[in-house]
From TrEMBL:
GO terms for molecular function: kinase activity. Signal peptide: none annotated. It comes from Geobacter soli. Residues 34-273 form the Carbohydrate kinase PfkB domain. It comes from the Bacteria. GO terms for cellular component: cytosol. This is Sugar kinase. SUPFAM superfamilies: Ribokinase-like.
Amino acid sequence: MGILVVGSVAFDSVETPFGKGDHVLGGSATYFSTSASFFTDVSLVAVVGEDFPEEHVAFLRSRNVDLRGLSREQGKTFHWKGTYGYDLNEAQTLETHLNVFESFRPRIPDAYRDAEYLFLANIDPELQMEVLNQVERPRVVACDTMNFWISSKPEALRRVVAKVDIFIINEGEARQFTGQANLVKAARQILDMGVKTLIIKRGEYGVLMFSDNSVFAAPAYPLEGVFDPTGAGDTFAGGFMGYLANTGDTSEAGLRQAIIFGSVMASFNVEDFSLNRLKGLGYREIEERYRSFKSLTHFEGIADGRGGALAPA
């Protein structure tokens, strides 16, 4: 069961305290597709300019990403420039050149319209709704957003949230969207908008997943070297949705496993700039890190014997 993703394919120019990359491959749909491709087939809808190198197209094809929905238009490719300080949880945007992405109107090829899994990456919520109107009802629809759309088009975003199954957002955006400082209260307010599952990304502090009757917390993987967090959220979403599409298991247990696989993929992504780490990644490494993740939070239950540490005095 494959995934359809609609989002951006872009150039990133990024500087962190640990190095920099200039005009490297980026974009929400790129990170998502690459991550998800380790688990399932991916079809991509996006736009690039005349300056987009064939080597990047070849890389996506090497990951078996279906590019019939990638259009090349006159003009330049979307380019984002940003910097991170030692607090790698938040980027400072220096320049944003939308270029051909400014007039992007997603047109879903007929071959993609019956996709069972759909990810609406970070684009205008009005465009996200246009995509929803072009597809048959997928089994699972997930979407992402950003602070700009929360402040500029909150009502359009609420309409999208009411129509999707899974909403993925970071903690700052959750607070901004609801006006609630407490994440649990913010989560309940977002769930009341109609979405079934809410995932709140917390950077180096991990992930929270909320539904009507459960809360799940997953840690971030402790790494000695974090070089570039750009695209980590989209890489997480790709691993998460890719695993769901691979197994078809959308139960509570299946969602929790998918959260960990998403976290695994994000942990690899931040180890290098752009998609460099994912380009050399093998599935055995993914499995090994998943097992390491599992051991991070494994602990035994309280012994059911008398005289233990919790026995009354």
